[in-house]
Amino acid sequence: MLFQKGDSGPKIKLIQERLAELDLFVGEPQGNYGTLTKNAVSAFQELYGLEVDGIVGDETWGALFVPIEGTPQGGNPPPPRTADDEVPPWLIEGLTDLGRGTEEIAGPDDNPDIVAYHQFTSLKAKDDETAWCASAACAWLERAGVESPRSAAAASFKDWGQELEAGQLGCLVVMSRTGGNHVFLYLDEDENGVYGIGGNQGDRVSVTKFAWANITNFRWPV
What we know:
By secondary structure, this protein is of the alpha+beta class. It has helices at residues 10-21, 35-47, 58-65, 89-100, 112-118, 133-143; strands at 162-163, 172-177, 180-190, 193-198, 206-211, 215-220. Strands 1-6-2-3-4-5 form a six-stranded antiparallel sheet. The longest helix is centred in the first third of the chain and has 13 residues, at 35-47. The radius of gyration is 17 Å and the shape is globular. It starts with 9 loop residues before the first helix and ends with a strand.
C-alpha cells in the first residue's frame, strides 16, 4: 500500500486519527492527505526510526497500527500487541470495512453491508437502523474464521471468550451506555479512555474514544 500527499479517502482519515492520538497531527481529520498530514507522517517516521519521506508505505502503516517494540524518547507508548505480534484477522476485517466507509444510509434505503452483518446473528435484521455494533463484531469474527456469540446484543460479549485483565490489540471491549451496552475492538488507550473501532459508532464504522468509566469487559476468543 502507498498513501501520499494528494490522496484522499477513509484510510487517509484513519491515518490522521491515529497520528492525532499520538499528538502528531494538528487539526480535524478530514481524509485529505495535505501538508499537515505529510508533516505529521514525517514526524512519526523520525520518531520511530523509519525512513523520513512523508509517505505511508507498508513499513510506516505497520508501525502506525502494529507498533514497533519500545517507546521512543518523547513519544507515547505504542498499543499492546498480541502474543504472536500479529494483527488479529478480525481486526483486519474491521479495518477493511472502515476503509470502505461502511455507514447507514439515510432514509428508507438500507446499506446491504450492514444488513449482511445482521445475518451473522440469530436476529437476522433486514435494516440498518437496528443497533448493529454487536452484529458488526460478530461478522468480523466469523469472516476471520472465529466463532462469535452470534447475537445482536452487545451484552452477549460479556461472558464470551476469555476475560482479559487489560486491553490487548484487537480484543473485544464491552462498555455500558445509556439504554444498554456497546461492543468494539480495542486499538489503543490513554489515561482518559479507550480507542476502538466498532460498528454503529456515529451510525458508521469508525474509530472512537470511550471513557474508562464506561468500560466493563475485555474479552478474547478461546
